[in-house]
Amino acid sequence: MKLAFLGLGVMGFPMAGHLAAAGHDVAVYNRTPETARRWGAAHAGRVAASIADAVAGAEIVAMCVGADPDVRAVGGAALAGMDAGAILIDHTTASAEVAREMAAQACDVGVSFIDAPVSGGQGGAEAGALTIMCGGDAAAFARAEPVMTVYAKALRLMGPSGAGQLTKMVNQICIAGVVQGLAEGMHFARCAGLDPDAVLAAIGKGAAQSWQMDNRWPTMAQGRFDFGFAVDWMRKDLGMVIDEAGRNGADLAMTALVDGFYADVQAMGGGRWDTSSLVARLKP
What we know:
Elements: E1 2-6, H1 12-21, E2 25-29, H2 33-42, E3 46-47, H3 51-55, E4 60-63, H4 68-81, E5 87-90, H5 96-108, E6 112-115, E7 118-119, H6 121-127, E8 130-135, H7 138-148, E9 152-159, H8 163-191, H9 196-203, H10 211-222, H11 231-248, H12 253-267
Parallel strand pairs: 1-2, 1-4, 2-3, 4-5, 5-6, 8-9
Antiparallel strand pairs: 7-8
């Protein structure tokens, strides 16, 4: 298929690469040209000079940008140049509100819109093993599914426009609680004089086991946080979660508490640290 990918950050760069490796005709655009040129040197695809150039004639356009304002700016520019009948997929973690806005704008120009936030981090993007939760029209999803499957291990349509973003919010709520639990468990183990590695060996295959425990407990024990999903990004996501809860009436006391703890990590200079850095605010 003729595709375009807009936004070549730590997620978009490998996602677009998987599309090119699968044999699709891929044009890419990034607001930092050097990143786009680096992608072009590594993959068999075309580096476009503008969004309009990238999306011209594309059957499906995917984007992965920063936040709501970026979705509006990049998505709006893409819709202005897309052909009727095409599909715009947004992999950004953004608000359900902006997803519904973009769906309405897309409808006005005869384009289908799918909000499709991802989970799995940079490692999942590089391995082509992301989890994608989608909102939008079922017929458009069916057309886009084979393309997204190239970089996904799990893919599901959750409902109408915005449902993908709402599902991603559930994902972030759950992660926040698990990581705070791990941080407190690590803190308690240290205060009790236990060896963190031995604790992991003892409980890591039982009811406490989780992806976060398997992948973050060892680096938490080492005090290493220079990788992974940044605290700044998590606070952006949790801010959207809390805003949405204000509209739908959900009681998210734990989520609000952990968001405040992440603010403490930011104040420590850890805005770019991995989310597991919650343990850094707990002194042994």
